[in-house]
Fold this protein.
Amino acid sequence: MTTTSRIAAITGVSALLSIAAVGVALPAFAAPGSGGTGTITVHKFEQPLSGDLGEADGSELTVPSDATALAGVGFRFCVIDDVDLSVASDWDRLKDITATVDAGGDLVVTEAPATTLTTTCGAEVLTDADGAAPSPALPADRAYVVYESTPPADAIYTMQPTLVTVPFPGNGTGDAWNYHPHLYPKNVLAGSGATKNGTIVGGKVTFDVTVPINNLGLDETTTPPSPKSYTQLQVEDQLSGALTYTGASVVLLDPDGDEVAIASPGDYTLTESGGLVTLTFASPQGLALLDANVGGSVVLTIAADASATGTTANTATITINGVGSDVEVVDPESFFSGAHVVKEAQNRGAASTVPLAGAGFTLFTRDGLTTCPADVAAAEADATLATVDTGAAPFVSAADGSTPEIVLAEGAYCVYETTVPAGYKGQTTGSLLTVSGEGASTTLVNTQMGADEGDLPGLPITGSNGRLLLTIGGTALILTALGLVLARRRREARQQS
């Protein structure tokens, strides 16, 4: 390489480095009128209980680890066609521009007093798994309206259309102008955090629907923004045909988990019709209690009897301020009809058993039951065992030996005989009843008293052998008597001689 070539090469490299250095430094000194491009990134999260994720100044925030990102939310970035921010006077126009979305979902931008401005919108951008929706490169020195074009299906409130400039004023800690502003709008989702549990013991089913009293955020249409209030909280729960409603109750808990006094119908209403249970907070005093206990929860408990084969699968619809969402029972349990106990008797001398009436039983259960305690007293003392409610009718064997059929949850049960028919020996140990389908049963056999030696006192001996023994015994007595008579006569004869 010649000296001239080497110098040219060095000069070229120096020029590139200089250009690169200038390119890196440009954002620090860029200002409206400098041209170029920028971006706007929307980060979508659920409304946190605290109300904020951080300062809304256009900078990128470090979001708390427990913040819930919302994926699949759509945003559009629309430039206001006749606003040019390279012109100083157009910055003054921004304070008079408002943006709304009409009933048809279309963006409407107006400049006071009544001028409708045209916009050009790019394609919808969906948030990713982290809740981020970055715009494509946007020309700088323009004003944009960002609006939520596809909100979550169960969002109570959506993001208000927001006017954002590129560049956006800095926050005082870095560059004077931010060419890549970040927005952090939040959605309040109906029923967010709600849970539903379904439990069954024997044939008694209980559902607990817990609805958090979430922060609804700020109403940005007011000046200054004011907290949004509850206008409705409703829970609807349709029980299946295999369940018979027996009752329900409601508890309101404050943020510390302490119960708040509430009354019906003043604060809420609770009704049931055709298995549809409906809880509604709609009165002014009831809604005021919700607003005063943000961070707490409402708990609806529903009790029902299993009356046919089915499961505890169930869905509750939660409606907050007119927007509904569903919450379902996790891991529902099955229950089956026709469970019963069969009692039979083994009578003395009989070759086979026969049905036995009048035997009463008590059932116990727990998850994972494989063996039964030694007797009913031990079962009653075992705190891990639950006594099964077998219904209003006595759980006693009838003439056919069977107890009434009942509905029981899938699982194992310890059966103890607590009423023993007269004349029979009862069973003191527990018997295992396994329910895995309809018609489950277990058979218990009682032995008749007297069937085993020692059960009863012995009876007088009868029959031919008995007569022989009596004859022999009688003859012996007669011979003994004759011997005594002869001996006495011999004594008398000796005395006379």
